[in-house]
Amino acid sequence: MTDVEITYIPIFLSGLMKACGNTAPINIKNKDKWINQTRNRWSELFSIPMLHDSPAGFPPNTLMIMRALAALTVLKPGKEGQELLVRVLDVLFSAYWVEGKATAEKEVFSAILGGVLGEEIWGLVLNMLPKEGKETLLRNADAAFKDGAFGLPWFVVVNEKGERDTFWGVDHLGLVVRHLGLERPGSGGWKAFVVRFLGEGV
Fold it and tell me: What is the annotated signal peptide range for this record (predicted)?
């Protein structure tokens, strides 16, 4: 199996963390340094361009961005909306983690989203922020909490047999691969995932 259908769902992360009494890693002594080291290890392993040090002011308040993304999924549901969402996420990632731009500032993310979506769609999304964007983001966070989520990334995975399971953290993608029955790459960054969780030669 090589094809997977992926649906990205924006949620209110702070709301989820509060609901389950979790603490952001950046606020935990020693772990704040560890997660940055680990981020650099994964970026090197998968050849993902990324700043070595966290951008200035990390972590930023991304509430308005998340409301915008949630509003976009309402405005453009289905495959078209997901394709637009992925394009926006890619550009936001590059702007923040590669270029170090202050993407949480309204003028910055407005320019980015307007450039990707076009002014007409971006204008509609902006009008949806106070109501549809806010309500959808909260609803998605509540659904994630009820599903057992306590942080991000949170994966809800259904394989070809209809078997459903959940996984947390980028370092558990090897288990996602196994649950889906995907072909297991034997080189590069994926080898680290596969060997760690499935064993050498499995």
Answer: none
Amino acid sitting at position 168: W
Burial grade of 162 (CB within 10 A; 0-12, 13-18, 19 or more): exposed
Average pLDDT over residues 52-64: 94
The DSSP code sequence of 50-89 is: --SSPPTTSSP--HHHHHHHHHHHHHS-HHHHHHHHHHHH
Q: How far apart are CA 173 and CA 100, in angstroms?
A: 27
Q: To the nearest 10°, report the CA torsion of 99, 100, 103, 105.
A: -130
Q: What is the pTM of this model?
A: 0.88
Contacts 24+ apart (CB under 8 A), 155-161: 160/1
pLDDT, tens only, 140-183: 999 999 999 999 999 999 999 999 999 999 888 888 988 999 88
